[in-house]
Design goal:
The complex is a heterodimer of chains A (293) and B (198).
Chain A: E1 5-7, H1 12-22, E2 26-29, H2 35-40, E3 48-51, E4 61-63, E5 69-72, H3 77-81, H4 84-89, H5 91-98, H6 103-106, H7 111-117, H8 125-130, E6 134-139, E7 142-147, E8 152-154, E9 157-158, E10 165-171, E11 178-185, E12 196-204, E13 210-218, E14 225-226, H9 228-234, H10 241-254, H11 265-291
Parallel strand pairs in A: 1-3, 2-3
Antiparallel strand pairs in A: 4-5, 5-10, 6-7, 6-10, 8-9, 11-12, 12-13, 13-14
Chain B: E1 20-26, E2 29-35, H1 41-48, E3 67-70, E4 73-76, E5 89-91, H2 105-113, H3 122-135, H4 141-147, H5 158-174
Parallel strand pairs in B: 1-5
Antiparallel strand pairs in B: 1-2, 3-4, 3-5
Classes of the chains: A alpha+beta (293), B alpha+beta (198).
């Protein structure tokens, strides 16, 4: 392992100052499960690792009075996985954290770290985009909210400016008559990187038509993307097989996959179609199940 | 717990960052040691403390051979810095046996079921299994397999590993079920019909 120094500041101001003083030579660490691998593989060669774990308040996980889920930068995937409220109300996110790495990794890895690492195949990104999550970004110039879908600019790249730190995440409360699904596609059941990941969040109106639809695709573009044409095709329509097939077709057209060691571009595009159809169908099924008295 | 002060880094960084002192509890004993800030907990356990029961397989969090418990939670020791262990309670395979050397029920049942081939994954799997049973004392076969998904057995001998964990759970639930003198593959280790995935 390359030699680096380590700091665990007790305040955000200290952490920010360390990041700014070191510039690109400093890396921020939450869980460290990706960062330490990147350092070992010399993808990153920081001179200083700034650990957030001693900063108070970043490990809170709560459901607000308005029903939104809010959690800090130090909340691990395992805490979300084992939280009954997350399992019941944000099943897309819950599925993603349950399939991320191993239990050992999930005890250390944080969801905010998964986001800031900005891997195109990261599991938590599609469901959080479909759920409309907002990031709370803290910096020298003050704090700013950033929508999850606007956060990523490329593989490993985000809109974060030097010295900025993501403090927490807010996931809106689930709408009435809605369903949320994440489907991860890989070659094995565990310890896998997503070949394709599709998340869908669908809300039905009182007449049983689709009032709102959000579809997010992972691992098929330089960043996770929304399939906006597929979403638009769903809104105002009654759920049904031909509608799902149409949305799947549009999502395939909107994806921009590459071929690599895990799958060819053509296979990924095909799977976008299959998984989008299944995800939207299941999300509509969940919304309909909620309608029953 | 006194953590080291923030480092004052010169812009022309010196080659070797200063050693940090770490105080923690390992296998019930208070331990203090000095360690470079870039050392993983795994390397510190093996090289600084001589606890070589914890194995280094992949060193990138894929294989689980380095699984230890930190404040009761199973983690990959290769993905944690040794300086982060300050003030924490660490358990490694060396701490599984009792004070007078009597084996932990998991160790006993791994032997009884023949759940080790080359043995390289065994310490990590024992620690993960301990965490698994602490959280879920009567797991189904599917739950055992899900729990051990982060531990690779390079010999692919999973069947007997799953049997040994199931037997340990059954013994703890049934009290007298565990006859430690019996050799061979015990029937109790087989999951009840319909409980598992296969």
């Amino acid at each position: 392992m390359i030699r680096f120094d380590y700091a665990d500041p007790a305040t955000l101001a200290e952490a920010r100052a360390l990041l700014l003083a070191q510039g690109n030579a400093a890396s921020l660490m939450a869980g460290g499960t990706d960062l330490l691998v990147e350092i070992k593989e010399q993808v990153r060669v920081p001179r200083l690792v700034v650990d957030l774990k001693r900063i108070a308040g970043l490990d809170t996980l709560q459901v607000d009075a308005d029903g939104a889920l809010r959690f800090g930068a130090l909340v691990t995937a395992r805490r979300l996985e084992t939280d009954a409220r997350v399992r019941a109300r944000w099943p897309g996110l819950h599925q993603a954290v349950t399939e991320l790495g191993s239990i050992q990794v999930r005890h250390r890895a944080t969801v905010v770290g998964n986001i800031c690492r900005a891997s195109p195949s990261a599991d938590t990104l599609p469901p959080l985009i479909a759920d409309g999550a907002m990031l709370h970004v803290h910096g020298a110039g003050g704090d700013r909210p950033v929508a999850m879908e606007d956060f990523f600019t490329g593989p490993g790249r985000t809109v974060l400016r030097p010295g900025e730190i993501v403090l927490q995440l807010r996931v809106p409360p689930p709408a009435r008559r809605s369903g949320r699904v994440y489907i991860k596609h890989g070659r094995r059941k565990a310890m896998e990187l997503a070949t394709v990941g599709v998340a869908a969040a669908v809300t039905l109106d009182d007449g049983g038509r689709i009032a709102d639809a959000r579809i997010a695709l992972g691992a098929v573009a330089p960043t996770p993307i929304r399939a906006r044409r597929a979403e638009a095709a769903l809104v105002g329509e009654k759920p049904g097989d031909s509608l799902f097939a149409r949305a799947a077709e549009l999502a395939m057209e909107e994806s921009r996959p590459i071929g690599n060691v895990r799958a060819s571009a053509a296979y990924r595009r095909e799977m976008v179609g299959v998984l989008t159809r299944r995800a939207v169908q299941r999300a509509c099924g969940m919304a309909l199940a909620e309608e029953r008295p | 717990m006194t953590r080291a002060a923030l480092p004052a880094l010169a812009s022309s960084a010196p080659a070797a960052p200063a050693l940090r002192s770490v105080q923690c509890t390992i296998n019930g004993e208070p331990v203090a040691f000095g360690v470079a800030p870039f050392r993983t907990l795994l390397d510190a356990l093996r090289h600084e403390l001589g606890l070589t029961g914890t194995k280094k397989g992949c060193d990138v969090g894929d294989c689980g051979a380095c699984t230890v418990l930190v404040d009761g939670a199973p983690v990959n020791a290769c993905l944690m810095l040794a300086v982060e262990a300050g003030g924490r309670v660490i358990e490694t395979v060396e701490g599984l046996a009792g004070p007078s050397g009597e084996l932990h029920p998991l160790q006993r049942n791994f032997m009884r079921c023949g759940a080790a081939q080359c043995g390289f994954c065994t310490p990590g799997i024992l620690m993960m299994s301990k965490a698994l049973l602490a959280e879920n004392p009567s797991p189904t076969e599917a739950e055992i397999r899900f729990g051990l998904a982060g531990n690779i057995c390079r010999c692919t001998g999973y069947t007997k590993i799953v049997e040994a964990v199931a037997l340990t759970a059954a013994e703890a639930a049934g009290g007298a079920a565990g006859d430690t003198s019996a050799a061979g593959r015990p029937r109790a280790a087989r999951p009840a019909p319909g409980k598992g995935t296969r």
